[in-house]
Design a protein that fits this description.
The protein is globular, with a radius of gyration of 14 Å. The N and C termini lie far apart (about 35 Å). The model has no long low-confidence stretch (mean pLDDT about 90). About 45% of the residues lie in helices and about 5% in strands. A two-stranded antiparallel ribbon has the order 1-2. It is mainly alpha-helical.
Length: about 100
């Protein structure tokens, strides 16, 4: 689970607040993130600050594998951003 933090951090700015809540809850379960403070319903600038704080806490684990977008040089940010651009963030209305 030590590889999950940067991906969960990105979800802290997800358009859907329940996703942000679950990402934050999941981050706090990771070693070193228990003290992370985040308001998942805050305005976007505050969400972005929380994302940056979580990323600053990340320490690259040894042996990060390519299937996790890692290499000996670190995270493959270009691949991560390419995948992120492919996301469909179209708004949805769910009648519950």
């Amino acid at each position: 689970s030590d590889w999950m933090a940067p991906y969960l951090a990105q979800l802290l700015v997800d358009p859907y607040s329940p996703v942000r809540y679950i990402a934050f809850r999941s981050l706090r379960q990771l070693p070193g993130y228990a003290s992370l403070v985040f308001d998942f319903v805050a305005p976007l600038p505050e969400l972005e600050q929380g994302r940056r704080r979580a990323l600053a806490m990340f320490r690259l684990p040894a042996g990060l594998r390519p299937e996790l977008l890692g290499s000996a040089q670190g995270l493959d940010i270009a691949a991560f951003e390419r995948l992120l651009r492919q996301r469909n963030d179209r708004p949805m209305n769910l009648k519950e």
